Amino acid sequence: MKVLVVLAFVATAAARPNLGFQADAADVSDAQKQHDINFLLHKIYGEIRDPNLKGKADSFDPEADLSHYSDSGEAVHKLIRDLKDHRLLEQNHWFSLLSPRQRHEALMLFDVLIRCKDWDTFVSNAAYFRQRMNEGEFVYALYVAVIHSPLAEHVVLPPLYEVAPHLFTNSEDIEAAYRAKQTQTPGKFQSSFTGTKKNPEQRVAYFGEDIGMNTHHVTWHMEFPFWWQDEYSHHLDRKGESFFWVHHHLAVRFDAERLSNYLDPVDELHWEKPIVQGFAPHTTYKYGGQFPSRPDNVNFEDVDGVARIRDLLIVESRIRDAIAHGYIIDKQGNRIDIMNERGIDILGDIIESSMYSPNVQYYGALHNTAHIVLGRQADPHGKYALPPGVLEHFETATRDPSFFRLHKYMDNIFKEHKDSLPPYSKEELTFTGVNVENLSVDGELETFFEDYEYSLINAVDDTEEIADVEISTYVPRLNHKDFAYNIEVTNNNGKEVLTTVRIFAWPHRDNNGIEYTFDEGRWNAIELDKFWVKLSPGSNHIVRKSSESAVTVPDVPSFDTLFKKAEAALGGGDAGLTEFESATGIPNRFLLPKGNEQGLEFDLVVAVTDGEADAAVEGLHDNTDFIHYGSHGKYPDNRPHGYPLDRKVPDDRVFEVLPNFKHIQVKVFNHGEHIHHH
Ligand SMILES: [Cu+2]
Prior knowledge:
Elements (H helix, E strand, L loop, with lengths): L1 E4 L24 H12 L9 H9 L14 H11 L15 H15 L4 H12 L4 H14 L11 H4 L7 H12 L4 E4 L14 H4 L2 H13 L15 H22 L48 H17 L1 E3 L5 E3 L5 H10 L7 H4 L2 H10 L26 H19 L5 H4 L4 E9 L2 E11 L15 E10 L3 E8 L5 E11 L10 H6 L2 E10 L2 E8 L6 E2 L5 H12 L15 E2 L12 E11 H4 L38 H4 L4 E15 L3
Parallel strand pairs: 1-11, 2-7, 6-15, 12-13
Antiparallel strand pairs: 3-4, 5-8, 6-7, 8-11, 9-10, 9-14, 14-15
Bound molecules: copper (II) ion (CU).
Organism: Penaeus chinensis
Family: Belongs to the tyrosinase family. Hemocyanin subfamily.
Keywords: Signal
């Protein structure tokens, strides 16, 4: 028997598109670029601490040499004009991407950065505008530019929770951090989740308030911005479908966490019924006061200047009509068929809505508008001049349990479409000659909590004259013990074949102990992994480790680590940061739902399908760099997200008799273990 061990997954971002301009004249090293980005994002509320960058901020003239821009300086002229006219949002003010004017300003800066043809122009502009624009707008524009510009291909962005800790931790910690700074006493503070034991939702706050989960969510929205236009540089492949898939996953994973904690799955939000759960965010803006709270059982009200509830209902019914008809109507009045694999992508663009939506006029922007409407329910008529709610920022949205109600509601619209497509036939699902003989898991599936420490130094004001003291917080977070899947596959084709291995799991029972049907279960399936393997003729033994999962990413390195690694590599050599280049996936710690003391039962399934037919790009088996949800270049899998479980299964026997499919039951345990690191 041939033992086949799949190579460790390395989470590099896929190659960026070549935009046809020259490499940097000065040939700047990756370490130098990392150094520059570290300093540009450090202490954003004060002066730039790197003398070279500070010099650029003071003396660079963005309009001096327009040959450095791919658009001949068009973008930079626009931004400079608004700057000179004092039209830009002041510093020391909150920033929300969902505010049209603020977004417009942030995007003007992004537009400048993405048009820069060399690194020096890129960082000089970044330094210059950091000193003159709103800090939130600056951070947002720079993050998105680093993610999408080919110039910044190997740069690792610092964790957003260290750049802008206010959006990730609670007010109590922030106050403690200020006291520590004022008294020059180093401090480490234990963070706790919002709410008390009186609130059942508190039991799953570790999910919605997890800094890694929030980083995943906000990073996805930066990889696939709803405002993206291809003329910036490239097309975002399957953006609408990715929108569906990533939020579907947040919803099903949250439900699995709820079942682990003896809570019912989330109910969908309903515009004409009260918002059952209130929410007190215990979160504060750096500038602009507390995030607004909302009591329980509030009835929806129209939000002045944003939308009426009636408009949302109209848009919803137009979308449901399109699904029932099987086509949408584009801007020109043409019918576009959605009864196919591409349909979900179009619907995703419509529901979010993104600039890819074929008809915003008619189908509106359900998701984005809903976020604002829900976020403003504490002050719908603007009587109290409250700042935006947590739902109006991708960094903070999942903190509010109503986020999941909202997304369950939209997920059910997507389900209506998926369920209208014909089920896969046995013939379509069969991979001739390939049999999965056995599937098992090495090691117990066990989760635990641990403390994780991160720096709050960027939360507090400071000046170069006052020395820094160490200020950090440690938060409890979910993790799991390492395990591996053992998959025994026979290949009777008499030759090597390329296969895609897809691994999913779903809860076996609901909160009342009633078994889910196959069709209910598969819609709640969590994608655990997806990879390509070449099978030799005869028996193959595939061992795939949990740490290799293609849908997850490791912890983002701290600012401290990024500074040290960049400085060490400046003299030459590799900073060794490759595996951290993308933070878009789910944190690997969250691969498994929490489970419980008795062991929460899950159905674990593996589907081994034809890799040759599935692969959208060449050489997938040699290169296990899988870009999870990443946007650069072509998405490597031709199949829809969730394949082959994405369509209705009226008869589960179709799956159970498939030789290239295996289905077992496993249990996920949590024995109440909490590892303290301090
Ligand atoms: Cu989102």
